[in-house]
Design a protein that fits this description.
Layout: H1 7-18, H2 38-42, H3 44-49, H4 66-78, E1 82-86, H5 89-101, E2 107-111, H6 116-125, E3 128-132, E4 136-137, E5 142-143, H7 148-157, E6 163-167, E7 174-176, H8 178-186, E8 192-195, E9 219-222, H9 224-227, E10 235-239, H10 246-256, H11 263-298, E11 305-306, E12 316-318, E13 322-326, H12 334-343, E14 350-351, E15 355-359, H13 366-381, H14 405-410, E16 413-417, E17 431-432, H15 448-459, E18 464-465, E19 474-478
Parallel strand pairs: 2-3, 2-6, 6-8, 8-9
Antiparallel strand pairs: 1-10, 4-5, 7-12, 9-10, 11-13, 13-15, 14-15, 16-19, 17-18
Helix pairs in contact: 1-4, 1-11, 4-11, 5-6, 5-10, 7-8, 11-13
Length: about 475
Amino acid sequence: MDQREAPLVAALAAYRERELLPFHTPGHKQGRAAPPPLDTLWGPGLWQMDLTEVPGLDDLHTPRGAIKRAQELAARAFGAEETFFLVNGSSAGVMAMLGAVCNPGDEIILPRNCHRSVTAGLVLSGAVPVYLAPAVLPPFGIPLGIRAEEVEEALEKHPRAKAVLVVTPSYYGICSDLAPIAAAAHSRGIPLLVDGAHGPHLGFHPDLPEAALAAGADLVVHSTHKVLTSLTQSSLLHRQGGRIDRERLAHMLRLVQTSSPSYLLMASLDACRRQLALRGRELLDGLLGLAQEVRERIGTLPGLQLLDPEDLPRGFALDPTRLTVNVQGAGFSGPEAAAFLAEQGVQPEMADPANVVFIMTVADDTTTAEGLTRALAALAAARKPPREGRQVLEALPLPPLRLPPREAVFAPRERVPLARAQNRIAGEALIPYPPGIPLLNPGEEITLEVLAAFAEMRAAGVEFQGLADPEGAEIAVLKL
């Protein structure tokens, strides 16, 4: 296959050149009625490419032409047997993965540091989670991944589990050793699912951790928009091997994806794949060199500690393009440091109580790198005496699962003050966002440890999603 092709981009360009009078959706009709000020902010080209399933542009849900060819090229580039375009984000891919392998009541092995989309997938599929608690890495207070030995032990205790799901890389760039985990799952005839949202670039340079598909994963989700160059909300779902029912997977995708997919998103996936296939090694060479320079500069700044590969225990690797900077030594909390950096002209990806996280991509250059290191130098220069007391949350005991998430979501609920919620069963989630990893899921018992952690994180400036009450004073619990 010729990776120089961009079949969907070409089809859109060809349709535009025909200058047909559009008596079809969308209503702006290729920008003729584009609403100000977006008509000038975006320019005519974007509006002209915002099209629908007219002849020649194919159909995402029954692809036969340009979309089919674009997906085949993506599969070849990423090393999959089949690749699906996602226009509802990686969340749709995660939900489809769970629905493809689990029936209501089926158990699935997965780490507790899963994204909220996994919880949504559990609700939609009716699967029952068997959580593994990743160890916490001091002094950063961030979760590691899970190990093959933990997976094997869980499968011994839960021999009827239908799948294993792993998150790698994590939001902090920590990568699990997937090959032995895949072997453990496959030895029992079940698939390995990987939420690899933050790792679509891993298979395109030898100095990066091993890609999930190369390690033997059966299904992998990639957020190309997070670290590559496609538009926000565009992602990929890859399939390989014979452990996945292909028709059921496609059916699940039709359930969770819009029937009006954005051609802008799909075209950006096509172009992003082409760029990566043709120039990925070259672009990543430059990125890795730049990231190393930034790492060396950060290492000289007093009060700041950068997460390095040497900080990780055996069995874990680090994506060097993800920069996690612990700011406790400078006397800041993560959110305080993020606000300070924004005043210096730098917007981090996220902040937790002790750390600030930065994503470097192929879009960065010496100018952006210098801007980042200059802002961090200013943060170090403004350092204060370290705070007294605990600044990093420790590993929490897993809240007892009293009901599967699906049952809890559909059960009768009532709202109670958080102060009176201890020992009740949660009807909604507590999700610090970003990174979107639930502190509490529906169906779990609300423990004193969870309430204390929630209070600490709120006090540190961490934002939460999941609660219907925006003030965080009340939580939905199951009626007694």
